[in-house]
Amino acid sequence: MSHTSHHQATLLARVRRLKGQMEAIERSLEAGAPCADILNLAASVRGATNGLVVELLEDHLQSHVVKADDDAARAAGAMELVEVMRRHLK
């Protein structure tokens, strides 16, 4: 079982909020809303996405680095974390 299943309800709530925010951007674009309003909505999506990523990173760090069964598992978890962070921070 994945460690994300322990926080599944919280993670799904975040994803559903993101979905709602994206739909708000879509509706605003269709309605011809002012660009500043759409930019503010997009900034909210970015913030919500970052919050989701931080929560997932924290879960990964706790499960695969801090609470790893042995040094090899800890090293593998740390390397996975580094790769994800590199992709996220590009």
Q: Would you kindly provide a written description of the structure presented here, covering whatever features stand out?
A:
The chain is mostly helical. It has a single domain, classed as Methane Monooxygenase Hydroxylase, Chain G, domain 1. Helix content is 82%, strand content 0%. It contains 3 helices and no strands. Helix 1 runs antiparallel to helix 2 and helix 2 packs antiparallel against helix 3. The longest helix has 32 residues. It is elongated and about 55 Å long. The mean pLDDT is 92.
Q: What would you say about this model in short?
A:
This protein is mainly α. The protein has helices at residues 8-31, 35-66, 71-88. The model has no long low-confidence stretch (mean pLDDT 92).
Strands, count:
0
CATH topology, what is it called? Methane Monooxygenase Hydroxylase, Chain G, domain 1
Strand content bin = under 5%
CATH structural architecture: Up-down Bundle
Note the run of SSEs as H and E.
HHH
Number of domains: 1
Number of helices: 3
Give the low-pLDDT segments: none
Question: What global shape is seen?
Answer: elongated
Mean pLDDT: 92
First and last CA, distance? 30 Å
Largest sheet: none
How much helicity do the residues have?
over 70%
Our Rg estimate from Cα atoms comes to 17 Å
> CATH top level?
Mainly Alpha
Structural class: mainly alpha
